[in-house]
Design brief:
D-amino Acid Aminotransferase, Chain A, domain 2; about 25% helix; alpha+beta; D-amino Acid Aminotransferase, Chain A, domain 1; 9-stranded mixed beta sheet
Length: about 290
Amino acid sequence: MANGYDDRDGLIWLDGEMVQWRDANVHILTHAMHYASSVFEGERCYNGKIFKSELHSERLLKSGEYIDMPIPYSVAEIEAAKYAALKANNLTDAYVRVLAWRGAGTDMGVAAANNPVRMAVAVWEWGNYYGDAKFKGAKLDISKWRRPDPLTIPCFAKASGLYMICTMSKHAAEAKGCSDALMYDYRGFVAEATGANIFFVKDGVVHTPLPDAFLNGITRQTVIGMLKEKGIEVVERHIMADELVSFEQCWLTGTAAEVTPVGQIGDYMFEVGELAREISEDYEKLVRM
């Protein structure tokens, strides 16, 4: 069995310094541990190049703004930190995790404006997020939890606190033998999986939920561009739950998931069809260019 993520060899970039992996720790009264004041990015690096790297760094800073947590680094500084971590660990193909959070300080309550904002970059080798589901088609549960109303939480931030219901949904899905769970939004429209956006195919047209209550993923945007370049019509709209029965193909998109075909959602079955396989293969080629 592989060691836990706290017990590995390697170096982590932490507040401007390279720290031994096992020593990259924070105090128990770190604000983020109590009040979820943290944002992050997940990125893939192939052949020494992080795909859409600057877009991820820009989004990290935007996420910090959304949760009233200004991050004290520029895009250029975040980029330098990511590549420094890759070099220090001698990795050219890796997953890159950048995390920024409110640390321990003079505030230990809901408000924490006086506490420092810290940042870390960890990199490691990571295979397919859904294992062999990438080839056979993932099986999804349907979550009882819904993506929240944008008036209740900054849902366009890639903020750690937004993933609490995702963790709960994925635990429930895995207990049923599924890879992930589909989530509806607060209105009952199809939204996304716990860490990936979703696409459907019907009569040669691709349909994907309008991202007005969840994160508009960078991989999602990339795939939409790829489809349009192929001359395939893409419709971004609200999708009702009862429409699932009418779709022929389905796939998930995300930095970790990349493009993963879906074979089943609840009782609804989907073909792992030609377009799903084609987009998955084309995306793999694109990120390795």
